[in-house]
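Researcher: Please predict.
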Amino acid sequence: MGNVYGYVRVSTKDQNEIRQIIAMQEMNVPGCNIYTDKSSGKDFNRPEYKTLLRRLKPDDLIFVKSIDRLGRDYRDVMEQWRIITKVKKADIAVIDMPVLDTRIGKDLMGTFLSDIVLTVLSYVAENERDNIRRRQAEGIAAARARGVRFGRRPMPVPDEFAGVYTEWSAGKITLKDAAKRCGMARSTFYDKARRHKENMSVK
């Protein structure tokens, strides 16, 4: 057998990868051979994964904690699985799903069953994510229909805003000065001024 690697991925920099690291250590993966990405699993444009793939040689082995740590789009996962096993001629093992271990059943039937299981699991995982997104969208739409507002609450205007706006609109002070006097960014002051002018024209 060649080198043993571990691939670890978390979606954001705030998430902790320690559980995956511990799993790699339990598989006796050398620390220097553990590659970690902190990025979305929507595609494989990840620096550490790309480096690992370049270093991969025939008979090497990659461990991943679960199939969704490899990727989230089942078509992309299938393509990367093909590259690792067919192009690179290496092995891959999913720790949480022992049946997804290309070292087992190297005969035609073993490979066939492994590919079938991978296809089904990847499809189910992506379908569940689609369902979650749909339920979230439906929940947001229902909340908006009830009058719930999302996003940041608008920044209140200071008491001196009207007077500052009058001076600014008359060209007596610059946008920078007007914004500074109101304790706002220039873009914020300009947006508030635009809304203020619209409200005045409606009255």
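Model: The two ends are 80 Å apart (CA to CA).
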